[in-house]
Amino acid sequence: MTPKISWTSKFYVCPGSTMACPTVLIPGLLRGSVGAICAQAPLSRLTPSTLRHLTLTSIMKSIRKTDHLERTASVVRREIVSAAKVCGAANESPSVKSLRLLVADQDFSFKAGQWIDFFIPGVSVVGGFSICSSPRLLEQERMIELAVKYTNHPPALWIHNKCTLDSEVAVRVGGEFFFDPRPADASRNLVLIAGGVGINPLLSILRHSADLHRERANKGIGYKIGTIKLFYSAKNTSELLFKKNILDLVNEFPEKIACSLHVTKQTTQISAELKPYITEGRITEEDIRDHVSKETLFYICGPPPMTDFFSKQLENSHVPREHICFEKWW
């Protein structure tokens, strides 16, 4: 499968684009009860009219402010808007907060690497956040996970300063940056290149790949994953998100998954556990060049200069454009 070009944590609180016009809401979106999954507090359903008002108001104001919805207006997104409830939260780094959302709507689904439009009651601006969890978590527990960096953008401010357990929001899936192979597709190697919070969609792809590998190992059927190499750069080790999750996968599948963690402004001592995986300095062209092959797909998500640099270098290394997938968020 050749994808389109374009861009667990500590949760114990809750047991248990052609342009697609983002204006159409379908009555009867909310099917199923949250109470069966989140026993502490059943989700009071947002009515279709409430969702419609929230979505249309946010769309108009977001577009006027050249915000997420305008920047992604030409990107494929689903028409379904689903209610969700915050069931867990954690500080992943000094500047990043992660959320776990319960989405009871059985019609809600996503592909590893995609993002959501994030509608907040009382906040006129729509957020756009990549999902960092695997589709398998949604299938099994009706949960998705996000990791949001603190900024002055209203949705990020709300998540960091006002969001509480049981806060109700609405979400809609979009994006052309994903890895979604079919069982009969040819095996591919993956190289994932992340900068900062650009790790989010790549972690979703990494987790999905691990799920596919487990399924094939356990059942003898399904997509055959090639090797996966993650290159991940951040300012320092405290800003490397989901370190434990990443290393757990590396240790679970040492023959399949490897990682190279880069820090650019490290001022403290690096822990013994992390040290074998850490390189001080940016990810380089030479790091990536060794992994170029006709069987390899490259996924890049990070600051625009980083994304532009590696996509250009890969083209110069004669990697087909359809094998270079990237996402830009800021």
Descriptive account of the structure:
The chain has helices at residues 48-64, 68-71, 135-141, 154-161, 199-219, 243-252, 285-289, 304-316; strands at 82-91, 96-102, 115-119, 127-130, 143-149, 168-174, 189-195, 228-234, 257-263, 278-280, 296-302, 324-328. It has 330 residues and is an alpha/beta fold. The longest helix is centred in the middle third of the chain and has 21 residues, at 199-219. The protein is globular. Keywords: NAD, Oxidoreductase. Residues 68-182 form the FAD-binding FR-type domain.
How would the blueprint of this fold be written?
Elements lengths: L47 H17 L3 H4 L10 E10 L4 E7 L12 E5 L7 E4 L4 H7 L1 E7 L4 H8 L6 E7 L14 E7 L3 H21 L8 E7 L8 H10 L4 E7 L14 E3 L4 H5 L6 E7 L1 H13 L7 E5 L2
Parallel strand pairs: 7-8, 7-11, 8-9, 9-10, 11-12
Antiparallel strand pairs: 1-2, 1-6, 2-5, 3-4, 3-6
